[in-house]
Amino acid sequence: MTAQITAQPLDHNSGNGESLNDANQSEILPLMGNEAIARGAWEAGVKVAAAYPGTPSTEIMESLGKFPADDVKAEWATNEKVGLDVAIGASFAGSRAMTSMKHVGLNVAADALMSQTYIGVNGGLVLVVCDDPGIHSSQNEQDTRIYGHLAMVPVLEPSDAQEALDYTKLAFDISERFDTPVIVRGTTRLSHTRSLVRVGERHENASLGFNENPQKNVMIPGHARLRHSALFEREKQLRQYFEDSDLIRWEQGSQSVGIVTMSTAYSYVKELMPQAHVLKLGASYPLPENRLREFCSAVDRVIVVEELEPIVENEMKLMGFEVEGKSLFPREGEFSPDVIREGLEKAGLLETSKARPPASVQAMPRPPLLCAGCPHTGAYMALRALNARVSGDIGCYTLAAVEPLKAIDTTVSMGSSIANATGMALAGSETRPIVATIGDSTFLHAGIPPLINAVYNNVNITVVLLDNHITAMTGGQDHPGTGRNLRGEEVHKTDYEALIRSLGITWIKKIDAYNMGNVFQFLREATLYNGVSVVIMDRPCVLDPVKIKGEPFRVDAEACTGCQTCMNLGCPALTWSDELFEGHRKVKIDEPNCIGCSLCAQVSATNCIKPVAAFETNG
Ligand SMILES: Cc1ncc(C[n+]2csc(CCOP(=O)(O)OP(=O)(O)O)c2C)c(N)n1
Fold first, then answer.
1. Does residue 227 share a domain with residue 121?
2. CB atoms closer than 10 angstroms to residue 193
């Protein structure tokens, strides 16, 4: 059950000032957290929304793109900073605007946020940022709430899909009322859990028009100094707002312990300690000191249950409250009922459960692998054969860092590969050819400035652009290189060759990633070139837009010598048979899994792999 959230009356002409659980909200739909966020934004009258995909946030923009284009211009942006800047532009123009991203996306967008917080908003401006506690699908684990403090912008923390909708809607109101960007913070568990959500109607907002106010809109030092002071006043007003808001909810209990919690941890706490006093924080910044004081003085012991960093705990300690938190609960990893239970046992609040029954179904451990027929495979096999020093990037191809390809030496953050390779070249100690590998979406996200930089600084590196025509890692989103937008409409398609040539690079080869002869030959030639060379590996992802399924291949068991050359591809369709050749296990192909890419046939040392039809013709 979600409690009533009463938005304060607003100046804005949208008429959104009524209770968010108003009479219009009669329909109930099963929505995933991310769908609920999109729905909340649409109901709030969002006019422009832009995002770069990133797990667990991706479905927010995908869902918004399903609403009529006349209602909301929803688009993929080339990166998170671009997405935020587009939303900021729409806010300047007087419309409600939103951007969404995964936690690390905010690192990219932070520069814009840190200035925009001074500027404030015209049309409401909401950033939905989804953290990934437990690092299910990310390069790190970080707590977005720290950015809330840094930027001094309110952070709302929904705990279920209903709140995801309600809080997103409310975030626009708060944004306009207090002249501030607002962060709605999600987590993987919130984003991807589906539950019943009461939905409402859309409130159309007339554009507020451009607000001509250079002192507010143009951040030069003289203006920024004034605006910085305004932030402190705004923080005070926001704190007061949360003192009075239903977003902060004290759920009375009968025990003498009080638990301060938020986000999905709230549900676990309620399940494990239904008798405790609970102060649910729907917003974790800025904190309402008086409400906290009232709560703390009513109980004997206060425990803060918050995932990741001790943000609320530390702030409460600074306010002078005696609280416990990270002495009981981990500061890393995802919370679960078991994790919270352990902490509460440690605190002596729950009896120690000695024998916890093991989960009845255990997932089978599975090593991460590139798909059968993945067009990234051949390039890495060749790079390993070339003994290249490979700086990698973020995408499906990062999987080439592990056995059996084991062909990537470094991976840092999106777009790092090219500048990392530049740095290695400048260091001057590397004797192996230096190669940066980067996917098409990642190249457009953050790969172009470092490529310009590599040319500018005249280094000897090879850049391999792995163009599989899609953002595969996050589920196959379009980008400027696919020539389609979020709604699937045809748009201008980035011409990589022309773009790269325009940067001053003359050694460029575009090759079919399935032609192993060319892959080996041109990668070798590229690494021998003196300067920046670029090889574009051109082949669509086998899963997008529909799973590619060509004629499968088969191993001629008679001819196979068990040399294992094909096994170096790490293709999941290749398995071992029970037959041996001079003590070596022969290989066979799982035909339903094979998509017919022919890479194994091309690398086979004994020419024993052929299309299935070849066997049938030969009887
Ligand atoms: C700053 C940031 N934004 C978003 C992501 C999520 N993400 C990881 S890889 C990737 C793009 C992958 O696409 P591409 O480079 O084309 O490689 P592919 O997966 O298709 O091989 C995205 C969006 C991220 N890790 N970091």
1. yes
2. 18
Residue 399 near ligand 1, beta carbon < 6 Å: no
**357 lies in some domain:** no
In whole angstroms, give the CA distance from residue 532 to residue 68.
45
Q: Are residues 518 and 568 in the same domain?
A: no
User: Position 408: which residue type?
Assistant: I
- Is residue 564 domain-shared with residue 477, that is, in the same domain? no
Rounded CA-CA distance 423/428 in Å is: 9
d(CA 371, CA 573) in angstroms, rounded, equals: 9
Give yes or no: residues 462 and 594 share one domain.
Answer: no
Question: What's 151-176 look like in SS3?
Answer: HCCCEECCCCHHHHHHHHHHHHHHHH
392 and 262 co-located in one domain: no
Q: What is the mean pLDDT of residues 4-30?
A: 49
**Are 314 and 268 found together in one domain?**
yes
Q: Measure 263 CA to ligand 1 centroid, in angstroms.
A: 26
Residue to substitute in 464, 465, 473, 537 for testing ligand 1 pocket (most ligand atoms within 8 angstroms of CB): 473
From the list 542, 547, 513, the residue with the least C-alpha distance to 381 is 513
Asked whether 77 lines ligand 1 (CB < 6 A), one says no
Ligand 1 centroid to Cα of residue 414, in Å, is 7
Distance 77 CA to ligand 1 centre (A): 13
Please tell me the distance between residue 557's alpha carbon and the centre of ligand 1 in angstroms. Answer: 40
Find the domain containing 485 and state its range. 377-538
Helices (H) and strands (E) in the chain, counts: 21, 22
Token pair recorded at residue 47: 């006019």
Q: Is 31 in the pocket of ligand 1 (CB under 6 A)?
A: no
DSSP-assigned states of every residue in 220-231: -HHHHHHHHHHH
Residue 103 has pLDDT above 80, yes or no: yes
For residues 328 and 347, is the Cβ–Cβ distance under 8 A?
yes
Among 144-153, 365-374, 529-538, 568-577, where is mean pLDDT lowest?
Answer: 365-374
Q: Is residue 17 part of a domain?
A: no
Examine the domain organization and report whether 114 and 215 are in the same domain: yes
Q: What's the structural domain count of the chain?
A: 4
CA dist 28 and 600 (Å) reads 52
From ligand 1's centre to the CA of 474, what distance in Å? Answer: 7
Torsion of CA 90, 94, 95, 101, to 10 degrees: 40
Do 182 and 165 have their domain in common? yes
Query: Which distant-in-sequence residues (6+ apart) come within 8 Å of 385 by Cβ?
Result: 520
Atom of ligand 1 nearest to the CA of 105: 1
User: Is the C-beta atom of 441 inside 6 A of ligand 1?
Assistant: yes
Pocket lining: 392 vs ligand 1, CB cutoff 6 Å: no
The alpha carbon of 67 and the centre of ligand 1 are apart by a number of angstroms equal to 25
**pLDDT per residue as tens digits for the range 470-492:** 999 999 999 999 999 999 999 99
